[in-house]
Design brief:
Layout lengths: L8 E4 L6 H31 L6 H18 L2 H7 L6 E3 H34 L4 H4 L2 H27 L8 E2 L6 H5 L7 H32 L5 H29 L9 H22 L2 H20 L1
Parallel strand pairs: 1-3
Antiparallel strand pairs: 1-2
Helix pairs in contact: 1-2, 1-3, 1-10, 1-11, 2-4, 2-10, 4-6, 4-8, 4-9, 6-8, 8-9, 9-10
GO molecular function, one term: G protein-coupled receptor activity
Membrane topology: Multi-pass membrane protein
Keywords: Cell membrane, G-protein coupled receptor, Membrane, Olfaction, Receptor, Sensory transduction, Transducer, Transmembrane, Transmembrane helix
Length: about 300
């Protein structure tokens, strides 16, 4: 593969070429990215340091926050730095690494969201067997499978990328490397590769979304047999999960289940997907979860007490 390839680097056109707008992009997305890091790292530290958050639900939330952090980091820092540059170039190898990391942590988030749905299903529909089914060993093995599945998916993306031949031009009309914009630059026929892309990424996102929504319909239907208090608590958690699922899968389905055709809103949808969602997820889970908020208050109070002692 990679035969007759004359391109050693690509030029990323970014979101805008206007100098004033590039400064606005820099400030805006620096704030967004720092907020993403702060929010997700706060959840990670809170779950790790609080024994009350030792249930499988928070075990999976820990890995969701971790994947959110890595997913955003795969694109945001470079986009922020490129906003200060007059010409944004990325080497071919860096481009390949970005494609791999973007799909690796994106697909990891898909698998984690599926595991969170399974956890809620067992907790609500099979409460007597919950601790047996969702044991620490099962949860750990499930996350391990999710990591391996993500590696398989992202490796397939790299294989498809390396099967393309680039002989110029090298202008990517995007702010990061992905298989979709790279298809437009290939010198060879991309019909089969695009078909494989839709079959791989598109099918994963579409099938996973349908499965998740169907599972939450079953979960919500089963809540009619619960007490008012139990129904309120479970409903609050499920609504948070459903909101995250819709926000995450909506852009994925739009981007990866269609032919390689450019739409005016593509970049903004990609921004929402790679920068916005990792920022919103910690807000959604903390604002609607009393246990996480209480644990964060305890963590901050411990920090204040330790600072006072010094």
């Amino acid at each position: 593969m990679l035969l007759n390839n004359n391109v050693t680097e690509f030029i990323l056109l970014g979101l805008t070429q206007d100098p004033v707008r590039k400064k606005i992009v820099f400030v805006t997305f620096l704030i967004f990215y720092l907020g993403t890091l702060l929010g997700n790292l706060l959840i990670i530290i809170t779950i790790k340091t609080n024994q009350a958050l030792g249930s499988p639900m928070y075990f999976f939330l820990f890995y969701l926050s971790l994947s959110d952090t890595c997913f955003s980091t795969s694109t945001a820092p470079r986009m922020i730095m490129d906003a200060l540059s007059t010409k944004s170039t990325i080497s071919f190898s860096e481009c390949i690494i970005q494609v791999f990391s973007l799909h690796y942590f994106g697909s990891l988030e898909v698998f984690i969201l599926i595991l969170m749905a399974v956890d809620r299903y067992v907790a609500i529909c099979k409460p007597l067997h919950y601790m047996t089914i969702m044991s620490r060993q099962v949860c750990g093995a499930s996350v391990g499978v999710a990591w391996m599945g993500s590696c398989v998916h992202s490796s397939a993306q790299i294989y498809l990328t390396l099967s393309l031949t680039f002989c110029g031009p090298n202008l990517i009309d995007h702010y990061f490397c992905d298989l979709q914009p790279l298809l437009k630059l290939a010198c060879t026929d991309t019909y089969v590769v695009n078909l494989l892309l839709v079959s791989n990424s598109g099918a994963i996102f579409m099938v996973s979304f349908v499965m998740l929504m169907f599972s939450y319909v079953i979960i919500l239907h089963s809540l009619r047999n619960h007490s008012a208090e139990g129904r309120r608590k479970a409903l609050s958690t499920c609504i948070s999960h459903i909101t995250v699922v819709i926000l995450f899968f909506g852009p994925c389905i739009f981007i990866y289940t269609r032919p390689a055709i450019t739409f005016p809103m593509d970049k903004m949808i990609a921004v929402f997907h790679t920068i916005g969602i990792p920022l919103l997820n910690p807000l959604i889970y903390t604002l609607r979860n009393a246990e996480v908020k209480n644990a964060m208050r305890k963590l901050s109070s411990k920090k204040l007490i330790s600072d006072d002692k010094r």
